[in-house]
């Protein structure tokens, strides 16, 4: 028998003796929540028994919520597994709350939603005699997710001028020989949205603290509880950054509604043209970036889940 024929006939026997690759989802959880979407974390672990690398584009994931097919994500989490080796890869997929609301009946009346994720993975195999072109894997994952229909507002926005002693110290630090009383008067006029009668100094030329307070009203018009004890925030006014910090003054006003009170200061150097326009008009546009940690039911996740949001709107000064 010719040698080449022996090799061809032996190929299927060699391939049959090789184990098949394995692919497991070693981790699956709700990784984060925003006011607009839910982020799922997946970890895919693949074992490659072959003497060549295995590369694949990733998984196809079909998301169904309360029985309605909402979203399909293709080519998620692909990577290359080294020859005769193993590798894991983490990836995230976001599911938009707005897409869910469009398809789930009586969405706002629900607290948590049954979610099913059907996943498929196709791994192309090396071209060895007797091996199939690929191995396919199927997965079915189930998880509840919170129903979120947010409304966020900034209310009771108030600014308070510094004291004359604070202005005096700021003038001294800046080397400005200006009467502290007149400087305070000019700054107070600016904060009241008025043109100073005696513009003895530009507030941006000194670094004096201006007190500001406001209330963030966060209302989930669906029924999931988004409770937290502290909120990190960054507030932009008319597109300009004004204050950054953290508030622990969080009050549950009613089911679904949280009131977060912020009392802090900003530098007079932050009185940009856009901020001054807000002071003059006594109203403005806001952008609020927030971070917190919320506790969901243990069946969803036992440890706190990060809550992040980036919301915009308008407000009126008191």
Question: Helix tally?
Answer: 5
Total count of domains: 2
What is the global morphology? elongated
State the order of secondary-structure elements, H for helix, E for strand.
HEEEEEHEEEHHEEEEEHEE
Tally of DSSP β-strands: 15
The name CATH uses for the topology of the largest domain is Immunoglobulin-like
Between the first and last Cα atoms, what is the distance in angstroms?
Answer: 97 Å
> Percent of residues in helical segments?
10-25%
Strand line-up of the largest beta sheet: 5-2-1-15-14-10-11
The percentage of residues in β strands lies in over 45%
Low-confidence runs (pLDDT<50, min 5 residues)? Answer: 1-13
Radius of gyration (CA) equals 30 Å
Major sheet size, sense and barrel closure: 7 strands, mixed
Global structural class: alpha+beta
Your description of this structure?
The chain is of the alpha+beta class. The chain folds into two domains: 3-146, Immunoglobulin-like (Sandwich); 151-316, Immunoglobulin-like (Sandwich), CATH 2.60.40. It is 17% helix and 53% strand. The protein is built from five helices and 15 strands. The strands form three sheets. The protein has a seven-stranded mixed β-sheet with strand order 5-2-1-15-14-10-11. The chain has a four-stranded antiparallel β-sheet with strand order 4-3-6-7. Strands 8-9-13-12 form a four-stranded antiparallel β-sheet, with no helix packed on it. The chain is elongated, with a radius of gyration of 30 Å. Residues 1-13 have low confidence and may be disordered.
């Amino acid at each position: 028998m010719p040698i080449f024929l022996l090799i061809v006939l032996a190929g299927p026997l060699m391939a049959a003796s090789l184990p098949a690759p394995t692919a497991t989802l070693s981790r699956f959880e709700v990784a984060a929540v925003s006011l607009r979407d839910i982020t799922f974390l997946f970890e895919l672990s693949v074992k490659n028994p072959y003497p060549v690398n295995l590369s694949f584009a990733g998984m196809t994931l079909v998301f169904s919520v309360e029985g309605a097919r909402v979203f399909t994500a293709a080519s998620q989490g692909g990577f290359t597994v080294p020859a005769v080796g193993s590798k894991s890869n983490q990836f995230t997929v976001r599911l938009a709350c707005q897409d869910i609301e469009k398809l789930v009946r009586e969405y706002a009346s629900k607290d948590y939603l049954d979610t099913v994720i059907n996943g498929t993975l196709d791994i192309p195999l090396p071209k060895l005699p007797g091996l199939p072109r690929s191995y396919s894997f199927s997965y079915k994952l189930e998880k509840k997710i919170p129903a979120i229909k947010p409304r966020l507002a900034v209310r009771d926005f108030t600014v308070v001028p510094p004291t004359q002693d604070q202005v005096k110290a700021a003038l001294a630090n800046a080397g400005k020989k200006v009467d502290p009383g007149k400087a305070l008067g000019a700054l107070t006029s600016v904060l009241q949205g008025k043109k100073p009668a005696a513009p003895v100094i530009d507030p941006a030329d000194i670094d004096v603290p201006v007190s500001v307070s406001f209330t963030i009203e966060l209302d989930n018009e669906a029924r999931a509880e988004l409770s937290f004890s502290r909120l990190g925030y960054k507030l932009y006014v008319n597109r300009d950054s004004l204050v950054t910090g953290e508030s622990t003054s969080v009050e549950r006003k009613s089911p679904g509604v949280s009131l977060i009170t912020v009392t802090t200061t900003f530098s007079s150097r932050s009185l940009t043209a856009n901020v001054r326009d807000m002071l003059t008009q006594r109203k403005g546009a806001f952008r609020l970036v927030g971070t917190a940690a919320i506790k969901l039911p243990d069946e969803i996740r036992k440890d706190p889940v990060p809550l992040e949001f980036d919301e915009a709107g308008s407000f009126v000064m008191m």
